[in-house]
Amino acid sequence: MDAILAYFENFQLTQENLILMMVLFSTVLIVITIFLVVSGSKSVVRNRLQTYKAENTAELPRRSTKIDNALESLSPIFAAGSSKEKESIRHQLMHAGFHNETALTFFYVLKALSTLLGLFGALIYSVFSESNSNPLISILFGLGVGLFIPNILLDRLVKKRKSRIKAGVPDMLDLLVVCTESGLGLNAALMRVSKELAMSHPDLADELDTVCLKIKAGYDMSEAFQGFVERTGVNELAGLISMLSHAARIGGSLSQTLRDYTEDFRDKRTQEVEEIAAKIPTKMIFPLLVCIWPCFFIVVIGPAMINLMDVFSKM
Q1: Which of 56, 129, 244, 299 is deepest in the core (most CB within 10 A)?
Q2: Which residues, 6+ apart, have CB-to-CB distance to 302 below 8 Å?
Q3: Are 275 and 269 in contact (CB under 8 A)?
């Protein structure tokens, strides 16, 4: 025991030790992954559940089934322990368009892989770099980059999908007004609008198809639209849900309700654009002060300063 403690006290982080640590860490991870994949693929309960599922549904490709089994077996390692964090990531994945059951496990697997890649990159840099800096700093930096890059990419995907859906909402409302005024019901109008928007706004068309399927399956219209808002994250459509529910409850005209909401929505978009335009002068102050005004003063005052320096030098 004393020899082990003395070894750890005299331990130094050299290139050979770093390489040995990387090899040991990689070997342990590979062995654990192979064990979990094999044990997950040969689980008796999972195989019986798959046989019951195959009797009622169409048979899925074997390759995707094996991948799903492997991910299910690896999920206890990579998934977060906090239920709040899991729910938050699941909502973000839903807003980004990933509705598969294994999307959460895929995300945590990718996060673990990116963390390992960041760790290995930092170790390789610390081994082969000639700098005398502390290698612990580069290791922590690599771990931080690998740990937070998946979350940053997921946030960007969510923002891009929300912007694409928001861009298609005005066209959707206009088409819904035209379809309902021509005599179509709401479900038929939604189906027609989803077909029309399939080329220009595919994300919005897919969500409208889901709403139509839910209404056909027996869901209430307000519940179907509430699920649409939860899946997309576009909270601006919550007002449309309440207006449509109120019109259906009191027997009002859906076309008139949609037309009123379309006008209100256009007014809100106009106000948002005006707000953005009003912020532009304030945002231009910083580049004016830092980039433009120094050059202006150099051009205007520079020659006069040079002449003054010549005059004082001659005196």
Answers
A1: 244
A2: none
A3: no
Token digits for 149? 């890059």
Joined tokens for residue 212: 């139509």
Indicate the helix (H) or strand (E) that contains 288: none
| DSSP-derived 3-state class of residue 188 | helix
What is the distance between the alpha carbons of residues 75 and 107, in angstroms, rounded to a whole number?
10
pLDDT at position 57 over 70: no
Query: Which residues, 6 or more positions from 223, have their beta carbon under 8 angstroms from its beta carbon?
Result: 214
Would you state the pLDDT for residue 72? 52
For residue 182, give the DSSP letter: T
**120, 32, 26: which is closest to 70 by C-alpha?**
32
Q: Which of 269, 249, 251 is nearest to 261 (CA)?
A: 269
What is the C-alpha separation between 138 and 155, in angstroms, rounded?
26
241-283 pLDDT per residue, tens: 777 777 767 777 777 888 888 888 888 888 888 998 888 888 8
Spatial neighbors of 222 by CB under 8 A, at least 6 apart, are: 241, 244, 245
Which pLDDT does position 60 carry in this prediction? 43
- pTM, two decimals, is 0.67
